[in-house]
Amino acid sequence: GNSVTQMEGPVTLSEEAFLTINCTYTATGYPSLFWYVQYPGEGLQLLLKATKADDKGSNKGFEATYRKETTSFHLEKGSVQVSDSAVYFCALRAGGYNKLIFGAGTRLAVHP
Amino acid sequence: SAVISQKPSRDICQRGTSLTIQCQVDSQVTMMFWYRQQPGQSLTLIATANQGSEATYESGFVIDKFPISRPNLTFSTLTVSNMSPEDSSIYLCSVEGSDGGTDTQYFGPGTRLTVL
Predict the structure, then answer these.
(1) What is the pLDDT of residue B89?
(2) pLDDT digits (tens, 9 = 90+) for A68-81
(3) pLDDT for res A96
(4) Do B25 and B95 touch, CB atoms closer than 8 A?
């Protein structure tokens, strides 16, 4: 079946450090891939997405590239800020289905 | 993207009671979704609600426990019935919109439910 695996958190970084949150997936066909962010006490916000192999999604300094050969969609940011502290969810939407399948989420804590 | 609101934002309820959560969207949408996020966990889809038809429930969720209404294209409700402490979760509604040609789900702020 379809599934998403994320690196376990929490991830703790100092401000301006480089961030990578790993995400790999299992899916039939060619899924669309998403990163959502959940700030403390809030709902989910779409951060970025990619719909086909080699697409790069980007937003607010975050990037992720759809790698079909490694079935991965790792989230990266070159210089994190304290305001980036949140839980990050990787998700997929398999072709022909509306259902989003989420990873377990990775909590990021950025310290000054 | 659509603007989605939910009521209530949070509630504390007694075991055995029921709570109805409302989801309002600022534009007409075909598909609405209800998710549950248990404490410290990821999101799990409860059901998909299309206007004019019965909701479609995921495995492990039943209509008697989570009845859903979808009276029009901008509104839906989810009821959590006969609650127990295990129902303490954040309940989120989402809608599907087109973002640059891609079907994308947008989420409401969630309803944080605590059952005592």
Answers:
(1) 96
(2) 999 999 999 999 99
(3) 66
(4) yes
Residue A51 in contact with partner chain B when CB distance is under 8 A: yes
CA B110 vs CA A38, B5, B49, B90, B99: distances in Å: 11, 8, 17, 6, 22
Q: What contacts B60, CB < 8 A, 6 or more positions away? A: none
| CB contact (8 A) between residue A49 and residue B99 | yes
Which residues of chain B make contact with A102, given a CB cutoff of 8 A? 42-44
Of residues A43, A46, A98, nearest to B48 (C-beta): A98
CB contact under 8 A, A32 and B102: yes
Q: Are A90 and A6 in contact (CB under 8 A)?
A: yes
Which of these ranges, A49-63, B34-48, B95-109, has the smallest mean pLDDT? B95-109
Q: DSSP character for B58?
A: P
Rounded to an integer, what distance in angstroms lies between the CA atom of residue A92 and that of residue B105?
A: 11
State which of A48-52, A72-76, B29-33 shows the largest mean pLDDT. Answer: A72-76
- Evaluate whether B57 touches B67 at the Cβ level (below 8 Å): no
What pLDDT, in 10s, does the model give residues B40-50? 888 999 999 98
C-alpha triplet B40, A111, A49: angle, nearest 5°:
60
